[in-house]
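Annotated sample (chain length 240).
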Amino acid sequence: MSSRRMKAIAGSLVTASFSAVMILPFTAVADDQGPGSDKGGKSVDEAPAGVKLTTLLPEKISVDNGSKKTAIKATVKNEGTKNSGDIRLLVVGFDGLEVTDVQGCSAIAKKDLPSGSNSGFSCAVGDLAAGKSKSYDVSATYDLSKTGKICLPVQTADGKKTFWQQGPVPFGTSNPSPNAPATPLLLGTDNQPVAPGGDELPRTGVGRDVLPLGAAGAALVLAGAAGLWWSQRPPRARRA
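Output written by the structure step:
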């Protein structure tokens, strides 16, 4: 084999190896939480001129069926043309979803949580520049025998105004998998809890299931009312 042909083959191998290295990072993140979504979000108080604040939650999360732990990325974004001014992001859990930690944030005192919520953290975002965003790693647990919701209000630093509020929006699945290592949940989906007994899937027919489902509907109405109450009553945060 000529030296010229050997050099050509060697060059092809190098190119192939380099391509593999470039592709691997994309493969590694393919099973991530998916794109961020502002589903369930709404403007509350009018933001300053040129400021447009929103939040994003992952389209999907995964709950470990053994530890009940899950991870969520919460993002606040300024889509406007001017800086936001001093703002804070709140991360609040409802029902089966309990927020256990938010990196770099302070726990909200139990007495300051809105009715129906079980946990919450306050994150000092500061002055968010136009077109910029800031993300926080949220640690939580999810009791799959219940429904679970999360709420992300964006307020002035003193809590007197709420510019944007996402939620309380549910994470859930209509296809529980109690025997799998983990259960994937989708944003904006009401969770269909696994029936008592663990391995038995919930019944869907009429009969004795009517009352629990009615109670669940009432709980969702109360959660919605709690979200509205929350936007009108700024909580006081305490340092962790």
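Annotation: The CA atoms of residues 168 and 224 lie 7 Å apart.
Annotation: Residues 3-32, 198-229, 236-240 have pLDDT under 50 and may be disordered.
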